[in-house]
Structures are given as C-alpha cells and as structure tokens.
Amino acid sequence: MTFCLGMRLKDGLVGIADTRVTAGNEYITAPKLSKYEFNDGACFLMTSGLRSVRDKTITYFERLIENRQEPFAYTYEAVNALSSCIRQVAKEDKAALEENGTTFCINVLFGGRFQSDSTHKLYKIYSEGNWIEIGEGTPYHIIGASGYGKPILDRTLKFTDPISFALKVGCLAFDSTRISAADVGLPVDIVIFLPDEPNRMVSYRYESENFKEISTLWQARLRTSIDSMDANWLTPVLDLMKKKP
C-alpha cells in the first residue's frame, strides 16, 4: 500500500509521500516522489501501484524530457507527456502482467507550474493515462491508503490555509495512516513549492527518529482533547446506565 498526498493551496503546492514498498513478505524503502526543475518551470510527481510499472514509466518520462526540444509551457503538457509514457508501458507490459494474474496499476499525483500557467496546478493521473485537475473545492487528493487520513483533511484543510498549516495537517494525516496501515511507513518525503519562488521547490525527508516526538505529542493531545470535551450531551446515555433493570 502507499500514502501519497498532494495539496493545492492559494500559496502553492505541498506533496507528502511515504517510502515503504512491499516486496513479497518483506518491506523495503524506496522513494515514491520524483521532482524536476527546469529554466522555465518545475514539477513533481508521486506514484502508487506496481513498482515495476512506476519505474519503467519514470524512465521513459525522463528520457522524453532529455530528448524534448521545446520546453513545457503549461503543466498539463508535462502531464500529457507522462500519460503517453504510461500508455506505452501498458502496451508493452499489460498483457504479460494480466496473464500472470497481476493487474496493470499506476496512479500519479502530478504538481507543477510552468511559464504559461497562471498558478500552481495539481493533477491526478489514472492507469489508463487519463487525468483530472484538483481544484479549489477539495484542495487535496490521496492515492493509496486514503481512508485513515481523509477525515482529518476533510474537517480541517481549506484552499486558503497557509503552507505551514497544510504541512501540519498533512503530516498528521500521514501519521494516522501509518499507525493504522502496516504497509505505510517512514521515512516520509515532503516537497513544497515556495509561494514567493513559483518555479523552485524544496524537499525534505523525515526519518523515524525525526517523527517520533511529534507523533507521540499528537496522540497525547488527541486523548487530552477528547477527555476535556463537555460531556453534557452524554447525559441521556449515562443516565440509562445508572438505571437498574
């Protein structure tokens, strides 16, 4: 399983990706985040699905970038280029995979900004190579294990939130997933488009030792918050418990 979260905000983009890869009965650590910087723009992508499909697709995409004579003017052009690589890999490998009982699967979150874009863009690309744009109404998308972190994001994240807030709630969503899903784990990679430098990204990897303190703090704060809630609304239920049959 995978946890990759992309957040599109007024001030830029945030991407968060775990690094745990399941190989048979073993876990290995491998990046699911790739980033690319050009003279006229920058982009990043995060993937879930079959690792072999991911690696071949990324290889084809990077070769396409190397051989491309015209720079990307819009982020959707880079998305279309990656989509063509997905379709090429499907043409080469899908039949053989399905013959062995394996489903051809890759999902991508693709964020970027190029010279002709009016703002940062975030897209979700499917295994078939088609895509959707992530808009302001629901300013995030998760690929992989979405069930554990989604409620936190739905309750808190807004398009107008600052990047610092998005980082907090995004990492909390990851930590909740990590706690509940054994095949999602640390280290976790983070990438940010800087609001004042729209064509440049910064990235950072949190190792287990870096994340332990904040994870413990969140758990303690959550228990304290629940314990300190007004319990008057529980009175009807508690009164029933006091009644003798």
Mean pLDDT: 95
Low-confidence stretches are none
Annotation, overall tally of beta strands: 12
Ends distance: 48 Å
Structural class: alpha+beta
Q: What strand order characterises the main sheet? A: 10-1-2-11-12
The CATH class name reads Alpha Beta
The backbone outline, from C-alpha atoms, is globular
Level of helix content?
A: 25-40%
Number of helical segments?
6
Give me the strand/helix succession: EEEEEEHHEEEEHHEEHH
Outline the biggest β-sheet: 5 strands, antiparallel
In the CATH hierarchy, the architecture is: 4-Layer Sandwich
Q: How many domain modules?
A: 1
Keywords:
12 strands; 6 helices; Glutamine Phosphoribosylpyrophosphate, subunit 1, domain 1; five-stranded antiparallel β-sheet; single chain; 245 residues; alpha+beta
Any overview of this molecule?
39% of the residues lie in helices and 29% in strands. It has 245 residues and is α+β, with helices and mostly antiparallel strands. It has a single domain (3-242), classed as Glutamine Phosphoribosylpyrophosphate, subunit 1, domain 1. A five-stranded antiparallel beta sheet has the order 10-1-2-11-12. A five-stranded antiparallel beta sheet has the order 5-6-7-8-9. Strand 7 and strand 8 form a beta hairpin. It is globular, with a radius of gyration of 21 Å.
